[in-house]
Amino acid sequence: MAKFVLYSDEDLQRQHRELFEKSIDFPIEPVLPPKVTAAEFEWAIKEWRKNLGVANVITGSSLFNFIDPFEMMEIDKKSIPSAAICPGSVEELREALKVANQKAIPLWTCSRGKNLGYGGPAPRMRGSVVLSLHRMNKIIEVNEKYAYAVVEPGVTFFDLYNHCRSNNLKLWPSVPSLGWGSVLGNTVDRGFGYTPLGDHHQHMCGLEVMFANGDLLRTGQYAISHGKTAHLCKYSFGPSTEGLFLQSNLGIVTKLGLWLYPQPQTFISCTVDMDDPEDIEAIVDVLGELRRRDILQNNPVIRNIIAWSSMQGRREDVWDGEGPIPQSILKKLQKKMDLGYWMVRFGLYGPKDVVEKRLDVVKSVMSQQAPTARLRSYLFEGDDGGLVDATKIPTPLGGGQVGVPDMWTLPAVQYRCPKAAGLGAHTDFSPILPASGKVVLEWFLVAKKIIEAEGFDAYCGGHLHARHMVLINMILFDKSNANQRAAVQTIFQNLVRESKKRGFSKYRSHINDMDAVADMYDFNNHAYRRFIEGLKDSLDPNGILSPGKQGIWPKRYRVEQQTKLKL
Ligand code: ADP
């Protein structure tokens, strides 16, 4: 059988293959979907092969493309799929769903499957069939005047960026830290990027969604046949439904309208450095206030020295002793790299006189409220009064902030591996906190203590929004090292316990933690979950779409899953 290819770009395909194939330290044994007999499964595979083509129904060893490359569970619990199917159109998707419905076969939807740290393409329920939509990869429209795009699930951030560039469109799409994921998958999973429109799901406008029975819905103004404002206005006539398809198993999103940022005349890249762990308090308070007042236009990204150095090389280059890197070594590193313990990046966008004025305000507020902060700014402008060219801005100052996708943070995953050995992996703990310096500092110190107690470094990176902050503790580890795996589990359990005590929930979670996180949303005897379960039962009576996604189980599995949880 022909080799499975996820990317037509050879370099991306190589990187994909290396990451997924090398992570296989266990045999991919054939598994059946839960509550499905071997004969029923065999029938379904035959039908899918007929409908989608043999090459688009994946079984056997090629399933390594659909596992979680960072999975830590024991072999018999790993989230291995029973097969993967790859429809190439809405019609093929409808046919694929028909087959799944007939035998109640659970499907796990993904687009490019690059949800790394959260499970990648792997299903929540072992034995589900991965429904990979990467072949549905058309850019349907990019509208320069109104600055939006309409894309299918398989369109990557690189695809959209290259399309804008090769057509000389004066638009900057927002991109996350790695460009190989899908625009649609990232948006519906509430992922983010770095331009002023970086909070992607807040800027989607007009979705097309297929339900389990093959029916097709369009949301908002997109619901009007031949409407003229499908992707311009989020209003619907009546309740809004778009949010029902975020982090959701109620439907499969087949088209996404997403607003893009108009290429500005000037971009000022700003960096702020502060030297001590406690300085996060001032950073959050000052920049949070500037963000609420709309002086800052994108969400500042705040990283500590551990986060930064993990992108530059391996830990053993900095420290090969036991335990976390000592403070004295970090201080030396800060000096050598000319960085603070904390470093912040944000940008200012627009006409030159406007952005310069914004910068004046930032300087004045910071000099009063964070006098020890080192603010640096770098202005880039277009030639002859034209628009600024994102490609002329060096990556560390521009990159994601000016909508240019790349892959340069991928090697960070090897941070804890010895040179030329080990299996790099990461898991993230990412609570949503109020944008309060005091609360963020307190949480950071709690998390740091928990992480360092297990001999790990307190990697911290966060996105500061106007009223909240998502603070990401990324735990980089060597998956082939049993001690590290155990330590990561301990860290995770302790972080969950402490965040629960304080009423903080996570913005996104690994498939294995979805039930635990969902359980925190418990007001009025889990009214939220009961509401969504009601919708699930009516929209997907056979329970075929992504069972267990975000802790929502179809009736077919609900009782046994909830019993398991209580044990
Ligand atoms: P990316 O490649 O951008 O990281 P993924 O394909 O891994 O995105 O998708 C991220 C998550 O979003 C998936 O785990 C899945 O739960 C959800 N998802 C992806 N594509 C769709 C879709 N077309 N419809 C509904 N949910 C989706």
Automatic annotation (TrEMBL):
GO BP annotations, alphabetical order: lactate catabolic process
Which GO molecular function entries does the Swiss-Prot or TrEMBL record give?
Answer: D-lactate dehydrogenase (cytochrome) activity; D-lactate dehydrogenase (NAD+) activity; FAD binding
Please name the Gene3D superfamilies in this protein's record.
Answer: 3.30.465.10, FAD-linked oxidases, C-terminal domain, Uridine Diphospho-n-acetylenolpyruvylglucosamine Reductase, domain 2, Vanillyl-alcohol Oxidase, Chain A, domain 4
Query: Which residue intervals define the domain FAD-binding PCMH-type in the entry?
Result: 77-263
Q: Which key words tag this protein in UniProt?
A: FAD, Flavoprotein, Oxidoreductase
Q: What cofactor(s) does the depicted protein rely on?
A: FAD
Q: Which domain of life is it from?
A: Eukaryota
GO cellular component, as recorded: mitochondrion
Q: Which PANTHER family match?
A: ARYL-ALCOHOL OXIDASE VANILLYL-ALCOHOL OXIDASE (AFU_ORTHOLOGUE AFUA_3G09500)-RELATED (PTHR11748:SF114), D-LACTATE DEHYDROGENASE (PTHR11748)
Q: What is this protein called?
A: FAD-binding PCMH-type domain-containing protein
What organism is recorded for this protein?
A: Cladophialophora psammophila CBS 110553
